[in-house]
Write a structure and sequence with these properties.
Layout lengths: L9 E8 L4 H10 L6 E2 L6 E8 L4 H11 L4 E8 L1 H7 L7 E3 L3 E4 L12 E4 L12 H13 L5 E4 L5 H8 L5 E5 L2 H13 L5 E4 L8 E7 L2 H6 L1 H7 E13 L3 H10 L3 E8 L2 E7 L3
C-alpha cells in the first residue's frame, strides 16, 4: 500500500459510544493522526474499528486516545500482521466519485474513468486524509469549483490528497507542507504513485504569502489559531478552502477568519462536518 508503515504489528482498537459524541470522537481521532477507521454501524450509537501501529511509544499514544475521549468506550483486540492489515482495508474501500470530476480510487481497484473524470490513486488507511470522510470530500468539492489557480499551497497536506487532486484539475505550481515527517513521507509516496509534480516539504509554520489558492483541511482549533497566518499566505484576491470543522464549531472559525480580514464566500455541510471557502480582498 502506498505510504503504509512497514515491519510493524497493528493493534485492533474499537471505539464506541452514544451518537451525540461521534463528531467529538472523529475530531479527536483526526487531531491525533489516526490513519482512518471503519464504521461498524452498530444498532445504537457508533462503533469504529481502527488500527494502531505498534511502533515505539504506541502505549502512550493509546493512553492519550483513551484520556482524550472521555465518555466513550475504547477496547483493544488482537494484533494484526502488517501484510494482513494491508489486506483488511480492501474489503471496505472502492472507487469513490467526488463532485463532477474527481474519483478517489484505491490502487488495488480497476476503474475506467469517463472522459471528464480525474482519478486520484490513494490507499485508505495509509495516511491522514483519504477522501472517504466528509471533511476531505467537501474540500475536494470546493477544489473542483475553483481550480485551477496558482500558485497553490496545501497546508497540513497529510496524505497529499488535496494537492494531488488539484494537479489533476490543472494546477501546476503546488507546494504541500506538513509538520509531521511521517505525513511528508506518505505524501511524497502518493505523489509518485500518481505521477504528479508537487513539492512536498516539512514545515512547522505556514510559508509566506503570494498564493492564489490555499487548502487547509485541519481542525477548528488550529484554523482559529492560524487565522492571521492563513490571511498572510494568500495573495490579494486569493482563495482559501478550509475543512475539518465540526458544524457546532463553524461559527467560531468564521468569527476568527473574519476578524483576520478574510471574506466568507461559501460554505458546505454534510453529516456534522463543514468546509468553508474564503477570499482575501483585493
Amino acid at each position: 500500500m502506498g505510504g503504509a508503515l512497514t515491519s510493524v504489528d497493528w493493534l485492533e482498537v474499537r471505539v464506541s459510544g452514544p451518537a451525540e459524541l461521534v463528531s467529538f470522537v472523529e475530531v479527536a481521532l483526526q487531531s491525533q493522526g489516526f490513519p482512518g477507521w471503519v464504521d461498524e454501524q452498530p444498532a445504537q450509537g457508533f462503533g469504529y474499528l481502527l488500527y494502531l501501529p505498534q511502533e515505539p511509544g504506541w502505549q502512550e499514544r493509546l493512553t492519550m486516545l483513551q484520556s482524550s475521549i472521555a465518555g466513550v468506550q475504547v477496547t483493544t483486540g488482537g494484533q494484526v500482521r502488517d501484510e494482513d492489515w494491508a489486506e483488511n482495508w480492501k474489503q471496505f474501500y472502492h472507487p469513490l466519485e467526488v463532485g463532477r470530476q474527481l474519483v478517489i480510487c484505491p490502487s488495488w481497484e480497476k476503474f475506467t474513468p469517463r472522459p471528464e473524470q480525474r482519478v486520484v490513486i490513494l490507499d485508505p488507511g495509509s495516511a491522514f486524509g483519504t477522501g472517504y470522510h466528509w471533511s476531505t470530500r467537501l474540500c475536494l468539492e470546493f477544489l473542483e469549483e475553483v481550480a485551477p489557480r496558482q500558485p497553490m499551497l496545501d497546508l497540513g497536506t497529510g496524505s497529499g490528497i488535496l494537492a494531488i487532486a488539484a494537479q489533476k484539475l490543472g494546477v501546476t505550481d503546488i507546494l504541500a507542507v506538513d509538520n509531521d515527517p511521517v505525513a511528508v513521507k506518505v505524501a511524497r509516496e502518493n505523489v509518485l504513485i500518481n505521477g504528479a509534480d508537487i513539492r512536498v516539504e516539512l514545515a512547522s509554520q505556514a510559508p509566506a504569502g503570494g498564493f492564489a489558492l490555499v487548502t487547509a483541511n485541519l481542525i477548528a482549533s488550529l484554523l482559529k489559531e492560524m487565522a492571521a497566518d492563513l490571511f498572510a499566505c494568500l495573495a490579494p484576491g486569493g482563495l482559501l478552502i478550509c475543512g475539518g470543522i465540526i458544524c457546532e464549531r463553524k461559527g467560531e472559525v468564521i468569527a476568527a477568519l473574519t476578524a483576520a480580514g478574510l471574506v466568507l464566500k461559501s460554505d458546505k455541510e454534510r453529516e456534522e462536518w463543514a468546509s468553508l471557502l474564503w477570499e482575501r480582498p483585493l
